[in-house]
């Protein structure tokens, strides 16, 4: 029987990155096997406690006691999780601190856009300058897209009067 089939959590070695230590006899041992056996021990112990201690008490305990125990267990679990992984959360969620500035940025954006709309509607010089700028931008976009269309269709083979590129169907009367 191979050693991997004797280790029920051996498949976790592929997913858990843990350092291995080469022993004198050449066998691989190290933190990964300790972690696997420790995890197995914790799972088995939790199962035993649940089956032989908690389940007999559940039938006899009132619902409010069970709810309070669950709330306390949840609170302890959250507290322990926050203590263990607090540094990782702080490092991975640093950008969440920027969310407090979001409302201020949006307020300034709305004020600036409202001022722009006010000046656009009341000052003729702003309206003419804005309209000329928009028209210049639209003409640039239109000429660019028209040039791209002409470039693409001039390189496509013509398929008669079916509208698939080429110059043969530019003046075709499609009725």
Tell me what the structure shows.
It is a single chain. This protein has 175 residues and is mainly alpha-helical. The longest helix is centred in the last third of the chain and has 32 residues, at 124-155. The protein has helices at residues 3-6, 31-60, 63-92, 102-122, 124-155; strands at 20-22, 28-30. The chain has a two-stranded antiparallel sheet with strand order 1-2. 1% of the residues are buried. The chain folds into three domains: 1-60, no CATH class; 64-91; 105-152, no CATH class.
Topology:
Elements: H1 3-6, E1 20-22, E2 28-30, H2 31-60, H3 63-92, H4 102-122, H5 124-155
Antiparallel strand pairs: 1-2
Short description:
This protein has 175 residues and is mainly alpha-helical.
Number of strands: 2
The number of helices is 5
Using the CA coordinates, give the radius of gyration.
Answer: 36 Å
Helix and strand succession?
Answer: HEEHHHH
Q: What coarse outline follows from CA principal-axis ratios?
A: elongated
Strand content: under 5%
CA-CA gap between termini: 81 Å
Order of strands, widest sheet? 1-2
Number of domains: 3
Main beta-sheet strand count, sense and barrel state: 2 strands, antiparallel
| Unreliable segments of 5+ consecutive residues | 15-19
Structural class: mainly alpha
- State mean pLDDT (0 to 100 scale): 74
Instruction: Please give the share of residues in helix.
Output: 55-70%
């Amino acid at each position: 029987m191979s050693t991997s089939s004797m280790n029920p959590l051996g498949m976790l070695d592929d997913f858990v990155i843990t350092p291995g230590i080469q022993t004198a006899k050449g066998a691989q041992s190290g933190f990964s096997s300790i972690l696997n056996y420790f995890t197995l021990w914790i799972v088995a112990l939790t199962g035993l406690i649940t089956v032989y201690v908690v389940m007999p008490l559940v039938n006899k305990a009132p619902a409010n006691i069970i709810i309070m125990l669950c709330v306390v267990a949840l609170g302890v679990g959250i507290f322990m999780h926050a203590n263990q992984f607090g540094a990782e959360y702080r490092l991975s969620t640093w950008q969440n601190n920027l969310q407090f500035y979001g409302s201020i940025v949006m307020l300034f954006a709305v004020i600036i856009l409202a001022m722009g709309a006010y000046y656009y509607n009341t000052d003729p010089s702003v309206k003419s300058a804005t309209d000329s700028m928009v028209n210049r931008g639209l003409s640039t976009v239109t000429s660019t897209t028209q040039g791209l269309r002409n470039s693409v269709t001039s390189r496509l083979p013509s398929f008669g009067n079916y509208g698939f590129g080429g110059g043969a169907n530019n003046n075709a009367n499609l009725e």
